[in-house]
């Protein structure tokens, strides 16, 4: 079966590439499993100094794959909970990777893609990149990614972005704290290479220690938070409202809560 992601180890840099541009690099349970396997390999490979997460094609990641969403909408709460726990574990694996992580973002970065960005240490986007946390329009919530997104952008900002599901630009994403830098579309690769080169100038142990220091200075995540968020999204997916929202999306109609 064709892989939807690719891991490349070159010198001191590990690169994970989302390589399913025909589907705008949308993720499903297979992508989640592949990414977790890649992160496990990176964690247990000596000599690596940094990791780059990037994507092929016009878009970084359009969020959840539509076929996967449709399939999960028909599954039980227990199956949805198992699925949500895997996504929560992916976010934790990425966030807790010992070496510095860099993400390159182009085009659309929607839904769970914003979780991947928030879990990386350094995020650089092209000027034309666009971001959206659209879950509430489907009767859902950005549950398992929320701890990392709120940590990156702050609760007050996330109140508006989570509740309105509005589209925001790379300039706004930088002002909000989601990304650190925006580059002209044609110079995104150059900006990424410059950042990776800067990372390699640091002492290997000092680099990891500095990352641990930042994590230690943040308010710690509640030990039960991953389970709480997994339970929440599983509840919403099988709820009457969640079922209606997903059905309306796939049927290309307005959900029942929008009065016409």
Biggest sheet strand order reads: 1-2-3-4-6-9
User: What is the tally of helical segments?
Assistant: 11
Q: Indicate the low-confidence ranges by residue numbers.
A: none
Strand percent estimate: 15-25%
Main sheet properties = 6 strands, mixed
Q: Quaternary arrangement of the chains shown? A: single chain
What does this structure look like?
The structure is a single chain. 40% of the residues are buried. It is globular, with a radius of gyration of 18 Å. With 260 residues, the protein is an alpha/beta fold. The longest helix is centred in the N-terminal third of the chain and has 19 residues, at 77-95. The chain has helices at residues 29-43, 66-73, 77-95, 112-119, 146-153, 155-164, 170-176, 188-199, 204-217, 225-238, 240-250; strands at residues 5-10, 13-18, 50-55, 101-105, 108-110, 122-126, 130-132, 167-169, 181-183. The termini are far apart. The strands form two sheets. The protein has a six-stranded mixed sheet with strand order 1-2-3-4-6-9, with helices on both faces. It has a three-stranded mixed sheet with strand order 5-7-8. The chain contains eleven helices and nine strands. β1 and β2 form a beta hairpin.
Please give a quick description of this structure.
The protein is α/β, with parallel strands linked by helices. 48% of the residues lie in helices and 15% in strands. The protein contains 11 helices and 9 strands.
């Amino acid at each position: 079966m064709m892989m939807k992601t690719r891991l490349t180890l070159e010198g001191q840099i590990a690169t994970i590439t989302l390589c399913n541009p025909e589907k705008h690099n949308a993720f499903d349970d297979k992508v989640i499993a592949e990414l977790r396997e890649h992160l496990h390999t990176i964690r247990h490979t000596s000599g690596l100094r940094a990791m780059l997460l990037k994507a092929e094609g016009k878009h970084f990641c359009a969020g959840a794959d539509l076929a996967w969403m449709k399939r999960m909408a028909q599954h039980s709460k227990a199956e949805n909970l198992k699925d949500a726990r895997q996504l929560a574990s992916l976010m934790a694996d990425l966030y807790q990777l010992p070496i510095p992580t860099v993400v390159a973002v182009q085009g659309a970065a929607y839904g769970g893609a914003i979780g991947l960005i928030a879990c990386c240490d350094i995020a650089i986007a092209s000027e034309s990149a666009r971001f959206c946390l659209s879950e509430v329009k489907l009767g859902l919530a950005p549950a398992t990614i929320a701890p990392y997104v709120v940590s990156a952008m702050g609760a007050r900002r996330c109140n508006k972005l989570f509740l309105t599901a509005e589209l925001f630009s790379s300039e706004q994403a930088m002002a909000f704290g989601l990304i650190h830098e925006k580059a002209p579309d044609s110079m995104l690769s150059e900006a990424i290479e410059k950042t990776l080169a800067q990372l390699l100038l640091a002492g290997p142990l000092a680099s990891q220690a500095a990352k641990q220091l930042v994590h230690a200075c943040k308010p710690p995540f509640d030990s039960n938070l991953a389970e709480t968020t997994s339970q929440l999204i599983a509840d919403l997916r099988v709820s009457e409202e969640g079922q209606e929202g997903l059905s309306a999306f796939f049927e290309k109609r307005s959900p029942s809560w929008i009065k016409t």
